[in-house]
Amino acid sequence: MSSYNITELVTPDWLASPGGGDNAWQLTAATLVGLQSVPGLMVLYAGLVKRKWAINSAFMAFYGFAATLVVWVLYAYRAAFGDQMLPFVGVPNQAVSMDYELSQAALPTANIKANYGMATMVYFQFVFAAITVVITAGSFLGRMNFLAWMIYVPLWITFSYTVGAFSIWGGGFLFQLGVLDYSGGYVIHLSSGTAGAVGAWWIGPRLQRDIEDNRPSNIIMALVGAGLLWLGWNGFNGGDPYTASTDAGAAVLNTNLCAAISLLVWTILDYVYYGKPSVIGAINGMITGLVAITPAAGFVAGWGAILLGIGSGSVPWFTMNIAHKKLNMTRFFDDALGIFHTHFVAAIVGGCGTGIFATAEGVAAFATAAPGGAVSGNGRQVGLQIAGALFIIGWNVFWTSAIMVFIKYVLRIPLRMKEEDLLIGDMAVHGEEPYVFSDGANVIYGHSERVHNMADIETGVQMGKTNTQMDPDMLGAPTTRHHHHTETMNGDANGIKKD
Questions:
Q1: Which pLDDT belongs to residue 369?
Q2: What is the mean pLDDT of residues 177-182?
Q3: Residue 337 zone, left/alpha/beta (φ > 0; ψ -120 to 50; rest)
């Protein structure tokens, strides 16, 4: 019979001292980040898309979260944070043995240790990997074949996410160069924004009718998701010092400050340009603020967070509302929820801003050797930040394309749903409907009782009847739609049309 030192197993020295609260905070922070995906992005996506895509959109996020965890513990975690195999990736290996889970948390290549167990670290890093691929889904909604998504998730985590994480956080070559990314501006948001745009190009656009009339199914539900995102970001940025430190508190305060400033700037710009403040626009502004502060959170002072908030509330607003339409970017890729603007553009703002506004004190408090950014006399940091961004962008362009090509041409699985499924939506894809208030025959849609069942719709599709009466979003509603102008409230990113 094996003998164990029970005291050492239950409360090892590194857990009890010097920071016995670190384990509690790290698990709390991980749970907050997990809630951002499940249910945060699930209900945000379900609320922002057309009613007929609510289930599919939420399910893509739900599946992505689960599939990522399996891949993560089997081999991906140690490829991202384990011993170095190549300058940009670690040695893949399992993270499920009991000895490994109970050992002290350590990132061996980065030479970092924490005062809690390896299981805590593995789970904390998992929720970041999961939300990255779930964010990517926001570009694909409303047309991606679910089977293709099921295959895409583990492949993208394997070949894309692990490399970015190891290169910048796990001790890889960008870490050694001194690229600063406090909590994932590049690893998470720049990579997901890039992959979203590239993947959307490969998948192809939504139905034209869905692009033109993409009214959200439930804006209040979207606000619930936005609230979970905002407060969940306290764990997102506050957990990345790997300890319950004073810098974690600074990161949380700066995170909320930048988000608030960005939301206000976006709302003001909406008011000035459109004559109306938009709640969907406010959600966009909140997200861009949270994204922009992520690479900088504990590195910058409060004034730096304010300046980043001004940049994140204005630059992505311009690309979404002005440049997107002027350049007719939808011709190149149909980004369903504007992930390119809210994550790619905002991450560039935040990443470059970090190179400018990072303070020497903030960087030192994070236990990083870099001497701060330009405000601390280190103008070279801006160049390092640009170099790091270019690597993440290039890697994701290549591997997202390679994965899409593999699914489509090697596995022979279509990336896009069949046209008849696109017309019907959730019922065709999943056999389920989002808002059901009675048994199958009587479903309430909007303000009136549904008068067609899904068999009627399918029959209509087979007979070539693709008019308003066969649109699940319009069933039971007047057959004449309200007229909508071609311009959109927020650059066609979230589907609110300007009447």
A1: 76
A2: 96
A3: alpha
3 state SS of 104: strand
CA count, 13 A, side-chain hemisphere, 325: 13
Phi first, then psi: what are they for 38, rounded to 5°? -125, 100
d(CA 278, CA 271): 8
Distance from C-alpha of 455 to C-alpha of 351, rounded to nearest angstrom? 51
Q: Encode pLDDT of 195-248 as tens digits.
A: 999 999 999 999 999 998 889 999 999 999 999 999 999 999 999 999 998 999
Quote the CA–CA distance of 126 and 112 in Å, as a whole number: 18
Question: With bands split at pLDDT 50, 70 and 90, how would you rate the model's confidence at 446?
Answer: very low
Q: How far is CA 127 from the centre of its chain?
A: 11
DSSP assignment of 242-269 equals: SSS-HHHHHHHHHHHHHHHHHHHHHHHH
Is-contact 314 265, C-beta < 8 A? yes
Which tokens in the block code for residue 379? 């103008």
Could you tell me whether strands 112-117 and 104-107 are parallel, antiparallel, or unpaired per DSSP bridges?
antiparallel
Tell whether the model's pLDDT for residue 456 goes beyond 90. no
Residue 400, CB-side half-sphere exposure with 13 Å CA sphere: 25
238 in Cβ contact with 251 (< 8 Å) = yes
Confidence of residue 336 (pLDDT cuts 50, 70, 90): very high
Model confidence, pTM: 0.86
| CA atoms of 130 and 196, how far apart (whole Å) | 15
Q: How far apart are CA 30 and CA 28, in angstroms?
A: 5
- 489 near 274, Cβ under 8 Å? yes
Q: What is the pLDDT of residue 450?
A: 37
| Structure token digits, residue 377 | 């006399």
What is the predicted pLDDT for the residue at 307? 98
CA gap 310, 305 in Å, rounded: 9
Helices 118-140 + 191-203 axis angle, to 10: 40
Residue with tokens 């790619």: 344
